[in-house]
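Exercise 4. Each item below gives a protein and its sequence. For each, produce the structure-token representation.

Item: ANTAR domain-containing protein (Kribbella pittospori).
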Amino acid sequence: MIAANASEAFANAAAAMVGPRDVVGTVTGLLEDCGALTGAAALGILVHDGQDRLELLSATSHTAAELELYQIQTDTGPCVDTLSTGQQLHVIGSDQIIQRWGEIGKAIAAAGFAQIHTSPLRWHGNVIGGLSAFHRTTEPLDDSALHLSQAFADVAAVVILHSMDVGEIEIADRINDALQGRIVIEQAKGVLAERHDVDMAQAYQLLNSMPRDTGETLTTIATRIIHQAEQPH
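Answer:
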């Protein structure tokens, strides 16, 4: 269930952190709540994997995932810029987006987005990732929405690295652990797409709806889907 307000969203994330570890599922829930509360149509998070490489951790839609992966492939784009500077970024208008990021900007505009806002995931002075929020309207975000987006990014960082004293090696280990969850989810999407004869975007929506229906974690459900597909018929 989408949170009614930021307090509920952050309380849900806190509750998830003291339960079975499901980083991807918890972060995906945060992204969905962030979108609902700030008006973003799609969101995604890129993270450093500890070897100076970017990886997609989570996205609220197949389109957002594709745009984030495109940024990784070309090493350019709004989230890449935020990871480099450690600062929030806010660009309004398709022309401005295209002018700033070229082919990536064209892909963002072609997907129907007219405004992009990014926020860094910060941890003890380090930038471990970036949150991208894609908007379909050109109505500028107010200060409260900008602050709220950063708050969601900060909470996402805590979800990924929730302990007080985490060194650089352990940070990399935890991020890689979270990324393994992402791989499981991608595999489950493929299974669902084939099983239900739907495209990857529809499979992604179907998978994301399952934890809300059963109360199980996203990673647990994805793992079960893969195991079921591997069983002989």
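Check: The mean pLDDT is 90.
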